[in-house]
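User: Batch of two.

Assistant: Item 1 of 2:
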Amino acid sequence: MKECSEELSSDAIMATIQSVCIREESKMGWSVALAIAASSMEDMSAVQSVTPIPTEQLKKAQQSDPAIREVLDHKILGVKPPAHVLKTYSSKTKCLFREWDKLTVADDDVMYRITTTRKQLVLPEQYRLTVLQELHNNMGHQGLDRTLSLIRDRFFWPYMQSDVEHYVTKACTCLKQKKPCRDTRAPLTNVVTTQPFELVSVDFLHLDQCKGGYEYILVVVDHFTRFAQVYATTSKSGKTAANLIFNDFALKFGFPARIHHDQGGEFENQLFMQLKTISGVAGSRTTPYHPMGNGQVERMNRTLLQMLKTLNNTQKSNWKEHLNKLVYAYNCTRSEVTGYAPFYLLYGRSPRLPVDVLFGLLPQSNFTKQRDYVEKWKQGMEEAYAIASKNAQRAAEKGKRYYDSKVRSTVLHPGDRVLVKNLTPRGGPGKLRNYWEDSIHTVVRQLGSDIPVYEVRPERGPGRSRVLHRNILMPCDHLPFETPPELSSKTKIGRGKRVQPAKGQEMDEDSEEDDNLSYVFPQVHSELTFAKNNQAGTEVEPELSYPTEEDKVPEQMASALSLPDDDYLRDISLPSETAPDDQSESFEDVVVEPAVPTYQLPQRNRHPPRRTTYDQLGTPTCYNIVPVYNGQPTWNPVPLCTVSGLIPLLPLTQPPYLWPSLINGLRLV
């Protein structure tokens, strides 16, 4: 039985099975299998295998470690040094001496820490980074507790927990991918205003499209009075925003002292900037991806959405018609921050509501002179402004105390290394997207001593400076420094013609690298023939009169009938004839084309050129140029019908208005 058996590799068996399958599908007579060289297999096994560290090397590493050497020497002697001697050692050595009863030296002079549940190797400092990489990086970058548990089961060294915590939470590059357990929160900075339209906040709110194509709302809110105005729009372009603010809002309520907005393109454009400059209006903007910087209008957006949601389904489909009524109701309602309604702080009187007319609750005027009303109105407004400012300041301080109680951030200084939160949308769900950007940035400066806004720029490579809020920055001073990327010159590779291998050309087996253990089966092409015979085995030669030298052809027609050059004729694909099954083929003359895994473009099917000429005046004749063995073209007429005594007729090539005359000519014959 042993004589009839042989051990084969799995690659050889797979190649044989594939050759049998392909032979059945394409009826091939032979196949070729390409195997991997033994040298490459040895390299792969060397990469995948792990070489254990010799015991003698561990012994030398412990003896050369300054913290372990003193303990190891005293443990071999079996004598613990007195207390006054222990005071002279380093803190790491003292930590090991505190584990004196649990430390033991094996027969190979390697020291271990043995407890009731585990046996730990006292790890020298030179191998600690390797252990951290193997048990954290190569184990899926798990958290601190899981990584520390894996290390404690195998190793021990002084202050091991603090070293592992520092590496996992501050020094490992996985910080760029993970979201921190607690978000960064910088201290809150309040904005203070003392009069109406000192600061106006604007923003666009996107809703479902209603009748008329309206799907955006331009929201304008005064910071002091909380007075709001909204405009339904069909787009959020810069021209639309500038037209509504400067041609409607400003002309009704006056030009504000400053306009605050985000960094959207509808506000950050040349038109908007020029209008602010001409009108004498100052401008300010929020930092990128920090909507809390425009909190007044964002809070108004939330209130407006809550009011629009109370509409029924029919009214929601045409929410534009109800928008102004809802905003008017908001302006007439008392604000908890100021203690007054926005309408009253702006106009100095309470608004008239339909319910007042219904129950006759209209205010009675006791003024007989206009001057008395003006003085009373002035006194009431001064008192209202003072109370509103005091109430707003009290509410702002209360909100700041609540927000700052959960502050988790540090003050950054110029030169600090930070990571920037990855907030750029790139399509898809983004569940595998890194939480922080890959490139590390450096702090350039802080824009103000009382605001947590910093200017940062990339640490390595080109890049522009960016002004960002502290909440989307994370310090990373312990991450390794990045190496600048190598600039590779990009060459534009043109799309050239595909060159077919010549007949009889030998294929180089070592020209392609077989990295994926793939098998290539060449395809066999039959020999090309120059002419195809009919069923009778003779060539068809119609009885036609060929053009002679005596026939005069016009110069224009002669140029059209010029023969093509030899290069063009050699490129013509001629019809081929399949060889019989019983015919023996020589593999030396077979063209072998390896299967290319890339996508092949469709090839053009070339046909012999067709020329039309006039044998006699009247009806033209169409000829096909067919190459022969000697390379000289011949003119073969291809008529649709031939009649004795008539020239070849091609009705389908004639204009439709000549078809009746041609048919009548055939009938007469």
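Item 2 of 2:
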Amino acid sequence: MGEETVLRPTHTRYWVIVFAVSLAIITYIDRVCISQTAPSISRDLGLSEVQMGYVFGAFALSYALFEIPGGILGDWIGPRKVLMRIVIWWSFFTAATGWAANYVALWFTRLFFGAGEAGCFPNVTKAFTIWLPKHERVRAQGVMWMSARWGGAFTPLLVVYVLKYMNWRHAFELFGAIGILWAVFFFLWFRDNPRDKKSVNAAELELVKDAERMAYRQFPWREFWKGVCRWGPALGPVAVALFFRFPLQRVLPFWVFPVSVAWAVLILLLLRRRAGGIGSKLAEPAEDHGDIPWRKFLTSRSVWLLWIQYFCLSYGWYFYITWLPTYLQRARGVSISRGALLAVLPLFLGGLGSVFCGFISGPVANWTGSVVKTRRLLACLGFTGATGFLILSTFLSDPLWAMLSIGMASFSNDLAMAGSWGACMDVGGKYAGTLSGAMNMMGNFGGVVSPIAIGYIVESTHGNWAITFYVSAAVYFMGTFCWMFLDPVTPLDQPEPTRLDGSKRVPVF
């Protein structure tokens, strides 16, 4: 009895966080490394700015298309098998980026690369829900995302160091090999159920008992195929939300749009949301949230403003992970090594912006006495600051001061991020998953448009990069106007106010 009373939980679950953090770093290294090597790739393959913009956009396209299938697959066969497979998949296409012989090969390679990475964070989140108690999940997510952001920040320095010993083609092969090693070690160590791990004692199992219902269960294939014949099993609320990224992929080359639409229709038909479907038996609560109120979504001013402001936020941010190294070398004339050092600043300061926003939101809320005022204040400061700092950078001749200004724009960008997701939870209410996915769709749309638009602007203006900053600043400033009129707390499912005659007021845009 005495031994039982002093039994302390083991810390095996923390290794899941270690694997997640290391994978987040690898994910952003593989994602961002092409931005640092873009000048060399363009030179060797003879690519124009417009073509390079499409290459950057290919990742965003497939990332959107395959995030839902990747997440659903994790519910079906468990994160252990899925993460092992998709990490090997995208690591192969990371290496294959170095084998590209022309524009078409490079575009398809990055398209397939994005398809693999799309399932990463949904399945890592799934692993967290299985292995971590509720009070540790938020902290684990914070550590993981901070690692991802700073992993991307220091990638330019890593790429420059690697390029001292090999060309860009072999560098991609090296980064791909790192991912494959991670997949092997993860598959050997991880289990989809903590009970299957011998190093987990009874006390630690007691800590995560609430998450046990989320552990992998054998997928009912017979029921699935019967469901396909009846137009499909259920798609959960979060997956439905992410599905609405699909229609916004039409900005890619004309022959890609029919493929995107066909894929979206296929997913919708096979995985249509219906109460009592397969999705409720796997990982989602049995509670039925009812039909999603599309009319309220499409006629709500707050919803539209949320979508538009997130497009503005993502449009500016994607410059930092795509064109920035090329800008430093061509517009600022800095060397590759110094450019890599300067390219650290935006993502590094952006990560600090996330931390700073979380730190001051409480004191600001106490000062304003209102959640609405706090969110509007921080978001307007973020969007206005990003606008001002981007414009300021075009007037600074010293590359260091210019990059510090761009870094502060990234810092300001992340000040508005927390309020956006907080508004989704409050405004969406029980439909928060759908609203969050729709907002994320608009952000992804901005991520596809931004690198392509920059490529067109730079090529049509014969290398006038200042115009790209003015356009991004204008887009940022649109976000400020959105928050001036956005109600970030009133839920959609709140009863509609009525007139004196008893009729309901029709919501307007």
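The two ends are 66 Å apart (CA to CA).
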